[in-house]
Structures are given as C-alpha cells and as structure tokens.
Write a structure and sequence with these properties.
7 helices, 0% strand, globular, 159 residues
Length: 159
Amino acid sequence: MAALLWRICNLLMAAFFGLAAAVQVNDPDAALWTVVYLVPSALTLLVSIKPSVTDNGVWRSLCDLHSAGCIVGTIALACSLFAYTQGNILHEEEGRELFGLVIITIWMSLCRSSAKSPLGGVRLIAAIVVALFPFASWLYIYVNKEMRASWPTHCKTVI
C-alpha cells in the first residue's frame, strides 16, 4: 500500500509541476520558470512510473543539480523578500516563486531519499501532505479574490 501511495503522490506532483510550468505562459521570465518546473515534473513522473529510477546515476545527478539551483534561488529570493517586502509574501510574485522553489526542493529531497529506503511512516505522511499542499494552496488562492486583486496582470489572466 505504501508503494502505491508513493507512486500516486509522485503522479500528483508531476501533474502539479507540469501545471505550474503551463501557467508561466504570461510571465515576463516564463522561459526560466517553465524549465524550473518542467525538470522536476519529468523527474517525478519517472519516479511515479518506476520508483527504482532514483538509483540511476543520471536521474540522481539531474535531481542534485536542479535541487542545488533551487536552493540558490530560494536563498536569493528569501534575501530579496526579507529586504523589500512589507506585507504578506504570498501577495508578492517573488514570494510565490519562493514557495515554488521550496516545494521543488522538498519533493526532490523526498524522491532522492527514497532510493536508500522505501518511504513509509512519517516520511510517507510528509509526502502525502506535500503532494496535497500545492493543490490546496491553488484552491485557496483561486477562491480568495482579495489575494488575487494585488497581482500583476500577467498573473491574473492565467487563472
């Protein structure tokens, strides 16, 4: 059962990362963010199809390289937000980008660690929570018109 749940979580996250890439279409830096989301989408889709792919050296290298880039991006965005943000960081485009990078980093870490031992117990529960969080967040943001009101035009036209 745990193996099936892990595969379903990976399928959900592959879909989330793919959707996150698709909504970048109107973003001024769409090319960058599309790649940022498509790489984990592909890696995660592979894990959902064949969980043992995390033992593959090429998969692990791509995962590590992408995760390192996301960590650097997370630090840069966090510093920028800390210096310039005055309100809720989710109202800032950089805040939403930061959360996207954090989700990628956490998910890639869970996938990477699944190569050593199958996910179960607390790690599986964490995977389920992380897999459901982006969809719950998108639903909340979609319902919360006040939050969307402060967004730039390119963000409003995608939803």
